[in-house]
Amino acid sequence: YPDKCELKQLHLVSRHGSRLPDPENIIAFDELEKIFANVSVAKGWYKNPFLMRKSHHLVKRGELEPYFDGLQSRKRYAKFWNGVEYDPEVIKFQSTQTS
Questions:
Q1: Which residues does UniProt call coiled coil (predicted)?
Q2: What average pLDDT does the segment 20-39 reach?
Q3: Helix H or strand E segment including 64
């Protein structure tokens, strides 16, 4: 923001982190595993690493991405964040609360 302006509010919208594949893609990976099982040179080579019960779950990196977004915000808007102490009544966070 321009030096002559004073930032009074900051609304940071951040998308969730990286996730595991959705059920449709996991099924496609299962089909790929079956195809490779029938190819003599590839038998046992490919195993689908994605479990259906974990579809859409955040990967480890995805869990860290919101944290890194916060670090970037603190770096980019250092003047705004300087001296700010966290107060849940003033600084609001909102999420879907799903992993």
A1: none
A2: 91
A3: helix 60-76
